[in-house]
Amino acid sequence: MAGDNFDKGWVYILHFKIPGLKSNYFKIGLTKNPIPERISGLQTGNPFKIVKHHHFDSECMGLLEGHLHKIFAERRFRKEWFTFAPRVLKKVIKEGTDFSNKYNPLAIKLRKLDKQTSIHKPMTPTANHLKLHKEAIDISRNIQEIELQRDIAKENLRRLTGNCIGIDGITGFTGLKIPAPSLKSSELKKHDLSEWQKWQITGIFSKKEEIIGVGTKLKNHPKLDTKHKVLKNSASSLFDLSTYNAKTKSRSKSSRNYHAEYIDCIGELGLLKADLDMIIIQFKLDCRRRHEIIDVFKYLRTDNGTKFDKDGFNTNKRKAYDARWFYSNNPSPSFSVSNAIGYQ
């Protein structure tokens, strides 16, 4: 499911006040941190006074935010920004309250299901499951398409960034310095298997959920997938760690356009993933502890996994810092694009 759709937190409605003028500008967003902290972060460098108009205590903040964004999409003009007259604002609050009353209890129930091991007993799909499955396939493939469009916009921004450290307010490179040394458990396993085996923790819980039959991006969107791979291959070679220019480029018309396209894709993906999760809710509630709806949805939860106890091993001073498995990696430049427009 989408990253924060079932996280507990707050969905807020913030009012942007313009001195001397009547303002109908509002922002609908989400946060796990206290809302005053979020407002403080938004207020920095912002000429408008930002105040909280309303908030919802949510057990599924991503779903609630996505629902409100979708229902009031015609009032939306950029990502989380909306224009609401007073009567519409009342509808927003009622819609959010009704949604929370319905889905908060389900989110709590789903979190419990997610932590229970499944039994190896499949469920035969109903007619409704098959109908929802078709919708889920369509949404999933649409998500793939928009993800490729987003990634193409990102690679175009990387191309425009070239051998500089970023474009002002749009892109940036990080990870340019040698990182601190750290343990490489794969190297420990290679050089001292018996020691690696001593530090394996068993009984680790894991969960795998999947809409069955979606297919890959290459299969479903071959032209877009190829375009992205070609562009990524050419753009990734432009930045050279040994010769890069430690300056930030000014924004251009092209970089602004690609940035707007990138942000629009993020907004669309948020709505689509919320729609997909609404279907997954139904599948999970129907599965309960069963591991699958046959040919529709996989919901496998096991507690027989293992993982390396890195913290425990690090207390073993005699071997923890052996240079064969404890060392610094080479710098690994990471390219990122801002998820919001903070410029005019």
Evaluate the radius of gyration.
24 Å
Q: Tell the overall outline.
A: globular
What is the share of helical residues?
40-55%
Number of domains: 2
Mean pLDDT level: 93
Percentage of residues in DSSP E strands: 25-35%
Strands, count: 15
**SSE order in H/E notation?**
EEHEHEEHEHEEEHHEHHEHEEHHEE
- What's the end-to-end separation, in Å? 34 Å
Summarize this, please?
46% of the residues lie in helices and 25% in strands. It is α+β, with helices and mostly antiparallel strands.
Q: Could you explain the architecture of this structure?
A:
The chain has 344 residues and is α+β, with helices and mostly antiparallel strands. The protein folds into 2 domains: 1-114, no CATH class; 116-344, no CATH class. The chain is built from 11 helices and 15 strands. A 5-stranded antiparallel sheet has the order 3-1-2-5-4. Strands 6-12-13-10 form a 4-stranded mixed sheet. The chain has a 4-stranded mixed sheet with strand order 11-7-8-15, covered by helices on one side. A hairpin with a 3-residue loop joins strand 7 (164-167) and strand 8. Helix 4 (127-161) packs parallel to helix 8 and helix 4 (127-161) runs antiparallel to helix 9 (253-287). The longest helix has 35 residues, at 127-161. The radius of gyration is 24 Å and the shape is globular. It starts with 8 loop residues before the first strand and ends in a 7-residue tail after the last strand. The mean pLDDT is 93.
